[in-house]
Amino acid sequence: IPLDLLPFFADILQQARETLTEEHELIFNTRGNYQGFWGDRGLLQQIFMNLISNAIKYSPHGGSIEFDLIGTESDVMVYIKDEGIGIPIADQEKLFQSFSRGSNVGTIPGTGLGLAIAKSCVELHGGNIKLFSQIGQGTKVTVSLPKQSIGHGAWGMGH
Ligand code: ATP
Ligand code: MG
User: Atom 27 (ligand 1): residue with closest C-alpha?
Assistant: First the structure.
């Protein structure tokens, strides 16, 4: 059966809210048709828990964290935008590699695995993940996942 994304993300955001300080604001927007998405719940949790925890962790001075869920005919897109410390341009391309961290993390703890895990889980769904960031301004991560609904239910039929 397809994954019902609204309660799925509401649950993840609720867990994230429990780790926020009062200087943070978490905004959740949805638009379009995000019904009919097929995916693995556990892998999707890995993706979005890692991305939201990064948005919070790398916004030590608070600010707003915006989470957008957008559905089209064929894909589901999720945008996660923060107003945190950002990432130096020189570090950006290697961050999806295991154990890679930005040079500006200071004393913020981390292993450098979250984005590598997220990218693997996104790719298992046939999707893609991109990161846009400006140091001192914030970071936006975009995840695009195909709905994969075509073919489901038709197994064993056709040829
Ligand atoms: P963990 O394995 O616990 O997630 P981590 O957060 O350091 O550790 P990743 O999630 O893979 O590892 O992120 C890699 C690096 O990318 C981070 O160390 C940080 O430098 C940078 N980064 C990731 N997300 C953000 C963000 N939202 N804002 C600023 N820097 C970020
Ligand atoms: Mg992380």
Answer: 55
Residue 42 has which token pair?
Answer: 């556990």
Token look-up 């979250």 returns 114
**Cα 53 to ligand 2 centre (Å):** 6
Q: Which two tokens stand for residue 48?
A: 């979005």
Q: What is the pTM assigned to this prediction?
A: 0.94
| pLDDT tens, position by position, 83-112 | 999 999 999 999 999 999 999 999 999 999
E strands, the chain, in order: 24-32, 63-71, 75-82, 128-134, 138-146
- Expressed in angstroms and rounded, the spacing between residue 36 Cα and the centre of ligand 1 is 31
Instruction: Map tokens 């916004």 to a residue.
Output: 59
